[in-house]
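Researcher: Quick sanity check before group meeting.
Model: Go ahead. Protein one:
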Amino acid sequence: MDYTSGVYGTGNNSYSKSRTNTEQAKEAKKSGQAIDAVYADPKEKQVSVDNFLQLMIAQLKNQDFTNPVDDTQYVTQLAQFATMQQMQELAYHSKSNFMMSLVGKDVTVAKLSYGGKVDKVIAPVEKISFVGNEFKIFVKGKEYNIDQLMEIHGTPTEESSKPQVDPSKYTILPKNKTDKSVELEWPVPTQDELIASKLKYTVYYSTGSAFDTVEEVKSGIRFGESERSGLTKEIITDLEPDTTYFINVIVKDGNGQETVYQKATVATKKKGE
C-alpha cells in the first residue's frame, strides 16, 4: 500500500484514493463557489428515459442474486417516465397545431425598438418556422417570437358573405367645383384599423339619378383606376359645364364584398364662371 501516491490495494484490485471530489466540494461550499465537474451543459442534468433504463440495466446486471433487487420501484418510475414523455409530446403537438393554424390568419405583432417605441404590424401570418427549439412566425417578411404576438384576428368564415362595412351611412361631400371639375371627399366607413387597411375604393359618376346600388353605380362612368387603397378624396375632371352629375364610390372590403356610399349630387358651374 502506497500512502504517498494515494493508491490502495494490490494487483487488479488497486484503486485511487478519492480525495478530490469530497474535499473540493467542501472547499467550494465554504468559499461560496459552485463546481459542477460532471455536467458541462445544464440540459444534461435532466435524466431522460434512456438514462433511467441504462441505470436500471446496470443495477440488474450487477445485483446480488442472493438478495435480488426489488424491481417494483423501477417499474413504477418507468411508468411515470413514459407518462411524462407522452404528456410532453402531447403538449408539443398541441403547440405545433396551434402555430400551424396561424398561417393565413390576420394577427397583430409588435416589437420594441430602440428608444422605447413600439412597432406594431397588422397583417396575415406568412409562414411558421421551428428554429433552435423555438417557434417563429413571419409577418410581412419579418421574423417574430411567439411572445411578440399581441392579437389574433382570425380568418373570415361564414361571415365572409356579409359586408364588413356599411358606407351607406356616410355621404360623399362636394368640396370645390368649376365648370369642368368637381372635388369630393368621403370618410372611411369604419374605425377598425385592420378592416380599413383592406378597403379599396372605385369612383363612378353619371348623369342618371338612379345611382344608389352597386349595380347602378357600375353602370356609370368610372373615373381613375379601380380598387385604390386609402382613397378618401378625388377630383373628377373633363366634365361638361352647367350639368348635374351623380357621384358615388364603390367600397370593396377584405372579403370581396362591395357596398356604396350615399350618392352626391353636384352641378358644375356655367362655362366661364
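Researcher: Fine. The other one?
Model: Protein two, sequence then structure:
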Amino acid sequence: MGIKFEMDGNLAIVTFDNPPLNLLGNSAFAGFEEGMELAVKNKARALLTLATGEHFCGGAHVTENFLNKDGNDGRRMLNRSYLLTQRFEKLPFPTVVAVRGMCLGGGLELAQIHDIIWAGESAQFGQVEARIGTATLLGGGPRLVQRIGLTRAKEMVFSASPYPAKTMLEWGLINRILPDSEVEAKARSYAKQLSEGPTIAHAVNKAIVNASAASGLSAADDMTIALAPATFDTNDMKSAVNRVQEKGIESLFKGMTFSGT
C-alpha cells in the first residue's frame, strides 16, 4: 500500500514509502489508516510519521483522485476521509511528523493533524489546492487558522504557493528545523522519549489543549475538571510524587521513567 509500519518499543512508526513524491492516492490513504489502526492495536504510546525519499508528500495523486469525478464523488470521498483525520487528531497519545522536501496539499493537511511537526531545512509547505481549482479538502485551511492565524492562513490558501521551513517556523506552523540529514533520527529520538512518558497525562493534556483551540478556554477548563482528576489514580503520578517525597524535586529531572499506567 506504499506504507510501512513498525513498532520500536512503545513507539509506532508509519512511513510513506512511494517515492519520489509519496503522492496521496487511495492506497496511500488506506495504508495510513491501517498504520493508525495498528498503532492502536499494538497499544502504542506515541506515533511518528516519516516518508521515504527526498520529499514528504507532493500532495494528492491528482488524476487518481479527481479525474472524471463529480460533486457526489467528492462528497463521498470527504465523508470517508474525515473519519480518518478526525480520529487521528483524537488519538490518546502524542503524534510527531518529520518533513523533508515538499509537503504540499494533502501532505500538509496530514502533517497538520499531528501534534508536533519537525522539518528539515529543505522542507517547503503549501496548501496548493487552488492551483487545480479546489479547496483545502482535508481541513488544511481551518487548521492553518489555529496554527498561524487568520491573515496568514488566507495568504497561504489564496497564493497556493510553497513556503520555506524558516518562514513556517516564524509563523508557528512547525515546531523545529533541523538539517535534512538529522531531522528523522532526532524526531525519532524525541518521539521515543514521548512514548516512554506519562501516557495518561499526555492524553489528558492533549485533549485539554485541543479543546481550548477548538472551543475556547471555558471548554478547556470544563474538560480539565472532567479528565485531570483521573491522573491522581495513575501509577505514574503516584510514583513521581513518592519520588519527590523521598529524593526531592530535583529527582524529577534525573531519568524519570513511566509505565504509562
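Researcher: One line on it for the slide.
Model: The chain has a mean pLDDT of 96.
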